[in-house]
Amino acid sequence: MRVSYTNTVYAPQSTVSELTLGELTQIINALKETPTLDQIKEWFSKLVLRQRDYDEYRLFNSRKYARNLVARGEFAEMLVLCWRSGQRTPIHDHGGSVGVILVYEGLLTETMFHRQPQGHVRPYDTHRWGPGAITGADVPDIHQLLNLQPQGRDLVTLHCYAPPLTVLNKYSPRSSKVARWREGYFASGAGI
Predict the structure, then answer these.
(1) What gap in Å lies between CA 116 and CA 171, rounded to an integer?
(2) Domains and CATH numbers, the chain
(3) Contact 94, 141 (CB under 8 A)
(4) How far apart are CA 171 and CA 66, in angstroms?
């Protein structure tokens, strides 16, 4: 398995140079169709990263990573996820949605998985993303997100899914069984 340390920052393609979180929220809520992976990456590349703008969504939970809803329209949704050291998602896909992540604070570890002929999954690549990095995946995508930083080092990430997540699939490296998981949002923090 390959492990990559990266701070690749997506280069915007249009002439609009900056967006605030509030402006992006308005864009998400006003969408008339599902945006593409590249459109979402473009929006994220223009975001001005100011903690005061996302502080109300910077809520942690000691048991699981916190999923804090910022905007949800018919065609996309945006969340701030807050992670304490050691918190992680299960191995999952996005149930047919594209997903883009922007790292605000900390170091995000993302491990990618292939589904094997027997049905279980096997890791094939791991990336470590720092502040300002944007990563995204089209359909299908099986991965796991982790905060592997030392104790006391928090991770804050912004996520956009299009269309909004409804049901995800969870996978295991030890079993061919695929579990279904329905999304839930809790301002005080939740996780898969």
Answers:
(1) 11
(2) 14-182 (2.60.120.10)
(3) yes
(4) 21
- Omega before 163 within 30 of 0, i.e. cis: yes
Contact 89, 99 (CB under 8 A): no
Q: Which tokens belong to 40?
A: 């979402």
- Report the Cα–Cα distance between both ends of the chain, in Å, rounded: 25
Taking only the tens place, the pLDDT of each residue in 62-76 is: 999 999 999 999 999
Q: What is the Rg, in whole angstroms, of the alpha carbon atoms belonging to the chain?
A: 16
Is the pTM of the predicted complex or chain greater than 0.70? yes
Place of tokens 């998981």: 181
Count other Cβ atoms within 10 Å, centred on residue 177.
Answer: 10
Q: Quick one: which of 176, 190, 171, 3 has its CA closest to 91?
A: 171
- Consecutive H or E run containing 150: none
pLDDT in tens, 79-117: 999 999 999 999 999 988 999 999 999 999 999 999 999
Both tokens assigned to 3? 């492990």
